[in-house]
Predict the 3D structure of the following.
Amino acid sequence: MNFPQGAWGFRNPSSIITNTVIIEGNGEGLFIYNGVPGLDNPPILSITNSDVDPYGNTVTPSLSLAGLPELIYSGPPALGNLIAAIAGQAGNDDFGNSYPAGAQFGASGQSQVQIIPNQNSAFNVTAAIAGVLQAVTALTTNDVNEVLAGFLGSVLLGSGTSAKMSTVLSSPIGGGQGAALILEAQNDAETDTAIITFGVVTTPDSSTEIYTPIMTLSPYALIVYGGGSGTTTITKKSGSGTIPIPVGVTVGKGESWAGGQKGGNGALGGGGGGGGSGEYAAEPALALTGGGTAAYSVGVAGAASTLTGSAVTVTAHPGTVGGNATPTTPGTPGNGGTGSTNTNHTNGNPGTAGTTSTGGIGGTAPVGGGTGGTGGTSGHAGNSGNAPGAGGGGAGQSGAGLIGGSGAVGQVKLTYQNGVPPILVSIASAAGTDQFGTAYPAGAYFTPSIVAQDPVNIVPETWHYVGTTGQPAFATGWSNRGGGFVTLAFRKLVSPPNSVEIRGWCSVAAIADTTVFTLPAAYRPANSQVLLAWETAGPANTQFNIASNGIVINANANLPAAGNYFFYGVISLDQ
């Protein structure tokens, strides 16, 4: 069927079934409206090369969608059939399929690609540097053990002039570790350097990601780390008070679950409604005062829970009580808690309504909270909700007015990292400080401090000659032998490491003169060691001791009154 250009076609048909639709002409197109078309009611979908619709509403030339979310299914809409979604907010469709705030491609339970403009989750690089993930492209697998998807995302590390714009590439995380790479720009104040960091990533709670560096590259230093810092999680399940914050810890993840509400009472008309669960609230990068405290208050049933950092309080609100049954009707459900303004928050779940015989089920608390209490059957009270934060079940139908189950207490949780990763190896053109505040020297150093040198040109320290200017003096009665014999001297060796070599000829005037000389502090062993000497007028081998205070002393009482001695030996300073 053809319609003249500019003329109306079908108006409000119940359905149009056809094989082909052809639209032609300049400024024309396809416009679909929600309700009656008109000015100020723009189309929810348009395909056109014009910038206005027939009623003067502004549209975007080409394909324009409004009224997000836009959902695409493989076959009839059903659970598991959602294959693409574009949404301004995360949510669920009418069939139980979930979708993120952004774009998602791929069915649930299969590999997916998600484009999330504002991930807004914590990404902490040890206790020293806290960050928040921003725009993320998530790449999920169909592995049932996957806890967090692999992703390529932007992250802002630190704050103020120390903030560093960064890009993160991370593998998926299961029950253990994943691998990740961070590309960090110079900080906003341009007082540091760009850094490439290789490391591993873990998650303590399926949302916060903790990054532990293995190696960093920067102009012009390479640093290898010898382990990560520890993760501490403190959970408070009742009461109020303060949580001590270790020195050096300036950020953590703060979470609160409000207490659940009571279930409704039963009556002749039926069971009471289930109580609503408490709300969940979180700050992924809660500022803390190192060496100070964080105040907390765990909400009892029906009360808010709070956790206070140095600038922000994480507050989760309670829901409402399940409705009491009347002599003629069952009770209505209680609503879940709501109202938090924290960075991350999830409304509590409502309970269910009572029936003519049983009480409603309490709302289950969100984000790992407790399950709602079950409703009582006819003639039985409702069951309490489970901690943290679940609503109580409504009481069953009863002429005696049975009581609904109690709501569960709330909970607060604080997770932070303490300590910084120790440097195992550093190779640098100049001395500096890494991004965690740890200094490293110029050159190539290992831990413990062993200098790495060219293996072809290993040169030990120069000799220190006893009795010369600036060197240790001989004790009374001792001197160099002279006459062209090698003089007594000492030096540190490169191999074996941390060792001292002693060699040379000297003479003694009398048997009472037992101390030869004293080694400087940097050349003394940790414990006494033995140095052998060969003499010309007595026993072939004579023992001398080198004490931990550096004194080289005769240990043989059978020395002659005078003699010449040749010393040689290598002692370890670690033994």
